[in-house]
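User: Carboxypeptidase regulatory-like domain-containing protein, Hymenobacter gummosus:
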Amino acid sequence: MAQPAILRRLCPVGAALLLLTSCECEIDGTGVVLDAQTGQPLPDVTVKAYVGKARRRHLADESRTNAAGGFATGVGLVSTLSSDCPDLVVELEKTGYATQQIKNPRADTVRLLR
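Assistant: Predicted structure for Carboxypeptidase regulatory-like domain-containing protein:
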């Protein structure tokens, strides 16, 4: 079936607009977790990485801090259909400490309270 002339002209325009309004985002985060009182690194802290905006976040990665309290998490390169990249929210949990969330960490030092 032949397409009407108007559709043949609009399809390439629509595809170009879609490409212009999309973007690729690198979604990752790093940091070090310390005990707030002693300043000592906290190993084995659960690190949960949530990706998205506001109430539409989903768990994308889960790991633990290393012996020096360091973490690196995220999902890498993500394509979106808008120019607004999703946030990375990292939740840090360890028994005996208050859970803490940080948004888009970049070599952050986080101090967990008992």
